[in-house]
Design a protein that fits this description.
The protein contains 13 helices and 11 strands. The protein has about 375 residues and is of the alpha/beta class. It has one domain: NADP-dependent oxidoreductase domain (TIM Barrel, Alpha-Beta Barrel). GO terms for molecular function: oxidoreductase activity.
Length: about 375
Amino acid sequence: MATRREFITKTTLASAALATTHWSAGLAAVPGNGTRTVFKQQKTENMRYEFPTKAGLGGVAAGNGFSENTNAQITATMQAAWDNGVRYFDTSPWYGLGLSERRMGHFLFEKKREEFVLSTKIGRILEPDAGFTPNPDLLWKGRLNFRHKYDYSADGVRRSVEDSLQRMGLSSIDVVFVHDLSPDNGDLGKNWTEQFKIAEKGAFPELTRMREEGIIKAWGMGVNTPEPILKCLEVADPDVMLVAIQYSLVEHKNALEQVFPAMDRKKVTAVIGGPLNAGFLANRERFNYGGKMPGDMVAKRNKFNAIIKNYNVDLRTVALKFCASHPTVGAVIPGASTAEQAAANTRSFSVEIPSGLWAELQAAKLIEANTPV
């Protein structure tokens, strides 16, 4: 009987060879939409890993994050993103406890594997449980059918990757993020440092081995706080970090001063998750992962809107272009639950922002003076 290592190796190496094609070939040309040069990624000194498109699509909505979405709705959303040039898709076993991976895999199954980049995450192993009753405050809505347990060990990494491949029906995963190993994870609490020690001896070296074996192309942390990113850079050899809700129009000082410089020293690429703070910067009445919207953030958003309205652009576009402009950033992955949202997000990356707007925002001290825009 084949071991887990043998299973993953055999099913991924062949497809990995196909994906060595240079990404710039054909990806800037979008049928029916002309040529969107914004998506043509240029490798820089700061990037150990190169994404095919600056604009990606996050998979929270595909997991029924915040509200229930139909299969048809998610398929239409992904199709709109694809039609507008997106070729990077991010998901996780945690998103809807497997639902996001199943839906994204169903859509991507019809695409040539060498034409897109896919990232998912490890850290939670799913177990069948038809009677699982989630906390009403849980982000995921609708029927779940699974519970989860945390596992940041080497064996846990192999099992998680194998499970994800089978859920998605795909032959390979490009990027793997170590998910939610962070002090803001309420399940872990102060124990997150003990789990980090397990990952330091288990998940981190195992992911490096998988990269060396050609099973994956890159790995890193996928977290909402800076501490695990900085610790991982000290003790391991990651390629890319999913920097979630840490670099946006309304919150970016710490990323500029600490996180990005530390990543630059190791030539590690950033993926920006939550660039719109869960729709807040698209003027939705929601901030990050729910709860009451902070009054100071609402006041700050009002100040942004008051200035931006004079430049014939919208807040969402300014927010996405802000994130995409930093040289450490390889991709930005806003979420979308409708085709209209996906199309609007991707179109925003093609908009030229007047330099006067950035200057006015800096003068008003709404964005840091050293922000590269």
